[in-house]
Amino acid sequence: MEILFQNVWLVPLFPFSSFVLLGLISFFFPNSIKNSRRICSFISIFSLSIAMFLSFHLFWQQITGSPIHQFFWSWITNKNVILEIGYLIDPLTSIMLILVTTVGVVVMIYSDSYMSHDRGYIRFFCYLSLFTASMLGLVLSPNLLQIYIFWELVGMCSYLLIGFWFTRPSAANACQKAFVTNRIGDFGLLLGILGVYWITGSFDFQDLSEKFLKLLDDNQINIIFANICAILLFLGPVAKSAQFPLHVWLPDAMEGPTPISALIHAATMVAAGIFLVARMFPLFQMLPLVMEIISWIGAITALLGACIAITQKDLKKSLAYSTMSQLGYMILALGIGSYKAGLFHLITHAYSKALLFLGSGSVIHSLEPIVGYHPNKSQNMNFMGGLRKHMPITALTFLFGTLSLSGIPPFACFWSKDEILLNSWFHFSILGFIAFFTAGLTAFYMFRIYLLTFEGNFKGYLLNNKDKNSSSISIWGNDIIPDKIEQKGTKIYISSNEIITQNLLYPKESDQIMLFSLMILTIPTLFVGLIGEIFFEKESDSDLLSNWLHLSMNSLNNIHSERFIEFLQNAIPSILVAFTGILIAFLFYGFHFYTVDIISKVKKVQFFHFTTKSIFLSVYNWSYYQGYIDQLYNFLFIRSLRFLTKYLSLIDQWLIDGIVNGIGISSFFGGEGLKYTEGGKISSYLFFLVSCMFLSFLYSYII
Hints:
two-stranded antiparallel sheet, two-stranded antiparallel ribbon, mainly alpha, 4 strands
């Protein structure tokens, strides 16, 4: 068993080796890419599956009482500095390894079908393998220096995958936006790491926490500097986990393929920020000001994401803002000291959100041949509806994910979200009110998404022929032949003031591989919440994840009817809030939504008309346009920076260059003038000498 712990570096090595192998195949054998697709996908899935089984074994060892293992190798040795690399295996690491590998394997299986017709198929799996390997390396890192290296690798992979379809301008812009926004957070993280090293003299997680506590007890730390360093450390997770105000990259990241959206939102990039806050939790807990900032950032992010999600018409962007809101819940939980609840919600949300994104990919994949391949059409919920009749399995699995995220028992997210709501209320009532209000909004927008997508009548035929024909072109410029459609007879409808008769096209259920992935994810969505700490005895003086992970029959025997009744009583408020949100969603979209298109009626409103209608539409516009935050950033940073650089360029061109050029021109003409006075004749020199002397005497005489 000790051999396994000493060789745990094999977990990230397997997916990394598949990345190298696939890269070599695509580089040295470019002509065989078409024939080697299945082999390459098998290599990626098989290598990550091995890592998954190793992770399960490590997880089992941890929950059965194995001690924490930590291994180091010397990297840089100096008289004053010793830098080491290695890995750390504890309950937090083991559960994150399970999360990354299980979701990663399911996403890879799903991608084998979803990306089967894409020209970048092997490149996609190559990036995917590196992405998972980087995240696994980050999770195993025992110190801040090593975690920063893998942190940057995760960011690089997200840049490559968000911009995977780089020929599409929106995708190219989205990956650049994600890259630049995360550079802001990463710069803060780097400064925070250096500041913590300056204070403690260590990068190791365990050592720096112990040294920081000792220095704090001895009053040998400048508390202002320590708070600044901790806030800079937190700036990295703010960007990586899409927290306000560095959240703007996450919705645009939906330009990447849908399997990548599932992986980013469930188990890799955004989870990295939550993981780092959890890993640094002992240090943050010593600084009350930092904990307050973390909790309020989480609460604001949760509320803002939910408020924006309620009006979005893009299916994937609606789920993206949902992710932003749920990540806010996790940060809020960690900020108020509810360590277990925050990490528990990270796990339950990961499987539910992966299920929802892969379900949305199934919908988009089936709609594209009908409404077109542009995201404005294939992801637009205005052109969906009634899909439950044609895609029953996708609809059912999507409903499970919707119920889970809405906080309905016994689905996974209910158990974790309920604990966050209660803890936030007991910590500070305003934070609790924000959390409960956001829970109601979550139930509303999730059922809004489900009802607009799967219930009512199919509205894809509302697009006219011209729009469909113009958009039925792949990103590579090739014509697409619709092969996933069903004909359901002939119908007459009105479009562009003309009566058009044609065969209606309806989406078809996805293939077995994609459906298999969806059904696999329904299992943890249904049952992973049942292992929550609500069934086990709570220790008032301990809040370690290991207590939550440790499952045994003795723990199950501790379940009493009194505790269960008490839990149900505490859960009643959150359940009522969730059902209220669901009821409102049904009132708006459940019965007549196919005849009322709210979004199409939204027009620009003059804000000085203080009528009820104008105020409502103003709020609606604020939500629909993402709180105008992108426009604000565009004005403050992009347009103002361009304005500044433009005028600095003019100053440089006319003032700085003008002075230099003026000196040069003056020297040129002066030299040209002097050239004619230096002819080599003594008489000319005497004439100029006498003339100058005469002028000098004349000037002195006049003065």
